[in-house]
Structure formats: structure tokens, C-alpha cells
Specification:
three-stranded antiparallel beta sheet; Ribosomal protein L11, N-terminal domain; Arc Repressor Mutant, subunit A; 156 residues; alpha+beta; single chain; 2 domains
């Protein structure tokens, strides 16, 4: 049965220290090569936490497979808008403003990991995350933006 190790790593900055090193070391694999491969596959997500799973496909041959997930939607929104964090108090402070194009870009990146059946649904989910971050959409409250999209008043 294949063994696997899952962890969150910073994009492009995985190291042989915890959490990966201690978990992968006993498997007898080339740790330096695995770390190099993970960093290569996650470099596009620099500065964000990315879920990574390393699965040993053949222990005798020391072969493995690396599966990289997508960062959380909130991390993608913050990166896209160039903000450090959400507002913390969304009723009093706006952390940023997203355009529908930015929302669409994030939705396209995350759609395979969402419950949405189509791009419009995925965009509505991303806008839902904007609510908790205190991010407006096209200058509107995100709940209002969702309502306008559902009614067809705001085209996506």
C-alpha cells in the first residue's frame, strides 16, 4: 500500500526541516530531490501556503509522486489584490476592492476544488470569501454583488 505525507508548505520555500523532513526521512527517499521537486512545482505560489502530498509509488525503487493543491481562496484573493490580510472588521474597514476579472481569474484557478457546477457559481463562491475578508467587488459590498450577479444585473 502506498504511503503518503501531506503538508502545507510555503510556495517555492519547502525545506528538509519540519514538517516534511521528519515525515519523509523514514521512507528512505532522496529528501533533497523531493524538496527540489516540491519547490519547482510550487514556485508560482510564492508567499502563500500550498497543500502538498508526496506519495511513495514504489518503496523498492524509491519512486514518488508529488501532488500540489491550490492555495486557499482567501490567499489567492490577497495575492491578486496585493493585500497582506483581510480587514479584521469588515463593517468598518475595507481591505481592498476586486474587479470581476480578478474574481474570474481566481475562480478559474480554484474551480476544480469547488462545489460549483460552472464558472458563475465558482465566482459567487469566491465573492463569498470576499465577504469575510472585507473586500468589495467592483466597489460594491460583496453580498450586494452576489445578489446583482444572481439577478443578472451584473454580468459575469
Amino acid at each position: 500500500m502506498p504511503q503518503s505525507v501531506s503538508s502545507m508548505v510555503e510556495g517555492g520555500k519547502a525545506s528538509s526541516g519540519p514538517p516534511l523532513g521528519p515525515a519523509l526521512g523514514p521512507l528512505g527517499l532522496n529528501l533533497a530531490q523531493i524538496i527540489k521537486d516540491i519547490n519547482e512545482k510550487t514556485k508560482a505560489f510564492a508567499g502563500m501556503q500550498v497543500p502538498v502530498t508526496v506519495t511513495v509509488t514504489d518503496a523498492a525503487k524509491k519512486t514518488y509522486e508529488i501532488k500540489v493543491g491550490t492555495p486557499p481562496t482567501s490567499a489567492l484573493i490577497k495575492k491578486e489584490l496585493g493585500i497582506e490580510s483581510g480587514s479584521g472588521n469588515r463593517k468598518e474597514k475595507i481591505a481592498g476592492n476586486a474587479t470581476l476579472e480578478q474574481i474570474k481569474k481566481i475562480a478559474e484557478a480554484k474551480i476544480d476544488n469547488m462545489q460549483a457546477k460552472d464558472l458563475k457559481g465558482a465566482m459567487l463562491e469566491v465573492i463569498g470569501t470576499c465577504v469575510s475578508l472585507g473586500v468589495t467587488v467592483e466597489g460594491k459590498d460583496p453580498v450586494e454583488a452576489q445578489r446583482l450577479i444572481k439577478s443578472g444585473s451584473m454580468a459575469v
